[in-house]
Structures are given as C-alpha cells and as structure tokens.
C-alpha cells in the first residue's frame, strides 16, 4: 500500500511541476515570438540569458533582439558541431568516451496485452502536436510527464526508445492498461 501510494503521489507531484514548467516555457516562447524568434530559435536561449535582460536600464526591444540573435546564432553553430560527435547511449565513466559500445537493450513490457494497430512514428517533439494518435500505437524516442496528452488522444499502445520499468510513461500505461514496450533501444 505504501509503495503504491508513494508512487501515485510522486507522479502527481511530477505532473504539477511539469505543468508549471510548461507554462513558463510557453511564456518564454511568446516573448521570443514578440521579438521575432521562432519557438525552435528559443531553445538556444538559457534562463541566465533572459535574466541579463532584466537590468535596471531596461534594454530596448532592438537591443534584446540583437543580444538574443547573437546567442542563438552562436549556439546553433556550436550545436551543428556537437551533433557530429558520436557519443555512447549511456555514459558511466570517462572510459566510455574512448570506446563507444552500443549495448543490448532489454525492453520493459507493460501489461500482458497485445495490440495490433497503425504505428505512428514521431521523430521530434515539435511534430507531436501535429499528429493524431487516436486508435494508433505511438512510437517516440522518449517520454516524460509532459507527454501525458498522448493518453487523452486514446493511444492503444506505446513504444519508446528510452525509459525503464519505473518511468512515468510505464507507470501511466500500467495504470490505464495500455500495452507498451518501454526502452526498446
């Protein structure tokens, strides 16, 4: 009983936290839009960058736009470089950078149920909002409490590349009786 209740409370707290976090991110996206930046551009802006715009001299919108534009362009360039560096899927020590090993994944199967339906693959989080999942199996890289909306769309199954038996989506699928394969690699 204790484990069940503590797990439920943990998931409720994670949901409340992520709702507030989601609202904050929406406000940042809206501020960026007003300055002429896309939501994708704003992913390169750090919280501390925004704090620098709060100085007592109140920078103009043009100053803020120029400051953020420089940061965004530099970080996009850096990201393009970093994306070319291969990394292991799990890093446990510095030695993992010397030789990249790709271990065997062991998926976590949730429920004993089976389902056959159309598979919907989504490669990036920005695509999620554009897809209708109703009556389909969702195939996504990873999922956290922010993806709970999938259950409102009445998915019939879920497959994730990353995640474990105690992950948020595994617990939600178990609660709702939705067959899932979590962390298939």
Short description:
With 185 residues, the chain is an alpha/beta fold. The chain has seven helices and five strands.
Secondary structure elements and pairings:
Layout: H1 2-34, H2 39-42, H3 47-52, H4 61-82, E1 108-110, E2 119-121, H5 125-128, E3 137-140, H6 149-152, E4 157-160, H7 168-176, E5 180-182
Parallel strand pairs: 2-3, 3-4, 4-5
Antiparallel strand pairs: 1-5
Structural account:
The protein is α/β, with parallel strands linked by helices. The protein has helices at residues 2-34, 39-42, 47-52, 61-82, 125-128, 149-152, 168-176; strands spanning 108-110, 119-121, 137-140, 157-160, 180-182. Helix 7 (168-176) links the parallel strand 4 (157-160) and strand 5 (180-182). The radius of gyration is 20 Å and the shape is globular.
Characteristic key phrases:
5-stranded mixed beta sheet; alpha/beta; 7 helices; 9% strand; globular; 5 strands; 185 residues
């Amino acid at each position: 009983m204790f484990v069940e209740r503590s797990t439920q409370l943990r998931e409720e707290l994670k949901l409340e936290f992520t709702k507030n976090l989601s609202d904050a991110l929406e406000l940042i996206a809206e501020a960026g839009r007003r300055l002429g930046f896309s939501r994708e551009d704003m992913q390169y802006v750090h919280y501390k960058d925004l704090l620098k715009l709060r100085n007592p001299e109140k920078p103009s919108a043009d100053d803020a736009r120029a400051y953020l534009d420089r940061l965004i362009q530099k970080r996009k360039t850096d990201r393009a470089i970093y994306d070319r560096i291969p990394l292991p899927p799990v890093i446990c020590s510095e030695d993992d950078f010397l030789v990249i090993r790709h271990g065997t994944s062991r998926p976590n199967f949730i429920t004993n149920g089976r389902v056959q339906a159309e598979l919907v693959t989504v490669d990036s989080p920005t695509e999620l909002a554009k897809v209708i999942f109703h009556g389909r199996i969702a195939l996504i890289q990873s999922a956290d409490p922010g993806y709970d909306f999938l259950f409102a769309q009445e998915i019939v199954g879920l497959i994730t590349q990353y995640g474990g038996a105690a992950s948020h989506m595994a617990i939600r699928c178990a609660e709702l009786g939705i067959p899932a394969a979590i962390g298939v690699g």
